[in-house]
Amino acid sequence: MQRLYLLTCVRKHTTISARGLTPSQIGRVRASKPDVRLYSAHSRQAPQADNNSFFPPSGSGTWSKVDPSLIVDIALKTLIGLGVVFTGGSLYVFWYKRNVLSKIEAAFNETWDDAALVQLIKQELSRFDLLTPDLEHAGLKRLAAKLFEVNPRRQEQDFIDYIVRGETTGSYFLLIGPKGAGKSGMVFDAMLNIRNKGSVFLEAHPDLEVFRLRLGNALNYEFSEDMQAGLFQRPDPRSGGPAMDIERALDKLHEVAMGSGRRRPLVLVITKIQNFHNDDQGRNLLLQIQQYAERWAIRGIVTVVFTTDDVWPYTLLRKAATLMEVHSVQDLDWGMSKRTLLCRRPDAENVDSVVHVVGGRQSYLNKVSRAEEMLQAAEDLLRLEKAWLESCLGLIPDCDNDGEVVIQQKWSLHCWTLLREFVRLYRAKQKELGDSWDPLKLPVIPAWRCQQIMTRPDYLDELDRLDVVYIDMNANVQPDSMLVLRAVLDIVEKEGFDELLEDVRCRVKEIENLRR
Question: How far apart are CA 105 and CA 276, in angstroms?
Answer without folding.
Answer: 27
